[in-house]
Amino acid sequence: MEDFYCPKCxxxxxxxxxxxAVGYFCDSCKTLISRKKILNHEEMEKRSKKITKxx
Length: 55
Fold this sequence. Notes:
Elements: E1 14-18, E2 21-26, E3 31-33, H1 41-54
Antiparallel strand pairs: 1-2, 2-3
């Protein structure tokens, strides 16, 4: 199964399943993350590089 990451802090997300629904939770931000906003490994690397370039 593929790992997904938080769009805010780039931490690895926990997958929560129940009653046929799937959700993703970020332990660092303490929030649920929409499936539309989660990042796969490639997207996470691209975004984190853009942020480090700005700094």
